[in-house]
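re: the backbone from monday

yeah here it is again, tokenized this time
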């Protein structure tokens, strides 16, 4: 086999992607769909799920609030019934959480960020791992963290706390599941161009009392390459990590960020 052939994931991989109807999750779902994977997406936005399914014939999907275990149990039972198993789990669902100083943060907003970003990873893992153990396709888990999972992030402590925790979860699971031939890696996107990042920049600009453009320039000045990354950059890494070329890559927190130096 040529080395270049190792870079394409095997056909008919069974892939579940959380938060898969919009943003990075949707781009990852489309990427796997383009290489003939069997893709099941789940998302809280019912209209977005239906739109993805209409635009990509054969793509499967359902509606779920990932912060509620009973919802996840239901959606995973449906996904496993339709797919007949799983080879790749992309734990992508997450929210930005509140912006503000620690003494001003709303307790409910903190708890919702932890439930959505961190607890949901456990809910899906607990259901997926027994099926991943049965996969013969180099089973793989991708945990979506963030550059905020390796750097301090003032005024965004709920978000950063969950993203650091996800890296710890990934590292521990890589050790735990390695003997079962299940690989576990985390992707740490940096400043990703798009509407969500615009909202984050706007919220932080308001907190600091400066203009949107000034805040955006501050973000870019912290990046060695002085540019944002794209959702396609992140999706490409997800595909690579699920390809035969990556069968010995596990336990890694891989930044896709142009080298963000500080936040």
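seq for it, each position gets an aa:
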């Amino acid at each position: 086999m040529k080395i270049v052939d190792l870079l394409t994931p095997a056909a008919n991989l069974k892939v579940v992607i959380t938060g898969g109807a919009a943003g990075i999750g949707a781009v990852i779902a489309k990427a796997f769909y383009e290489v003939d994977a069997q893709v099941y997406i789940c998302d809280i936005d019912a209209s977005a799920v239906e739109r993805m399914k209409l635009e990509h014939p054969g793509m499967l999907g359902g509606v779920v609030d990932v912060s509620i275990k009973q919802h996840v149990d239901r959606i995973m039972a449906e996904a496993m019934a339709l797919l007949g198993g799983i080879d790749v789990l992309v734990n992508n669902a997450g929210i930005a959480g509140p912006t503000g100083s620690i003494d001003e943060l709303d307790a409910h907003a903190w708890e919702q960020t932890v439930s959505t970003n961190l607890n949901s990873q456990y809910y899906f893992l607990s259901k997926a791992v027994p099926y991943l153990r049965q996969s013969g396709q180099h089973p793989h888990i991708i945990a979506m963290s963030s550059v905020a999972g390796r750097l301090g992030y003032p005024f965004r402590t709920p978000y950063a706390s969950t993203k650091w925790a996800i890296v710890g979860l990934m590292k521990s699971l890589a050790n735990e599941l390695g003997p079962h031939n299940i690989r576990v890696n985390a992707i740490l996107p940096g400043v990703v161009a798009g509407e969500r990042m615009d909202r984050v920049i706007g919220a932080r600009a308001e907190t600091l009392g400066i203009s949107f453009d000034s805040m955006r320039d501050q973000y870019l000045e912290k990046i060695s390459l002085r540019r944002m990354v794209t959702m396609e950059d992140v999706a490409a890494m997800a595909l690579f990590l699920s390809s035969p070329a990556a069968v010995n890559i596990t336990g890694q927190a891989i930044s896709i960020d142009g080298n963000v130096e500080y936040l």
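Residues 39 and 109 are 31 Å apart (CA to CA). The chain has a mean pLDDT of 96.
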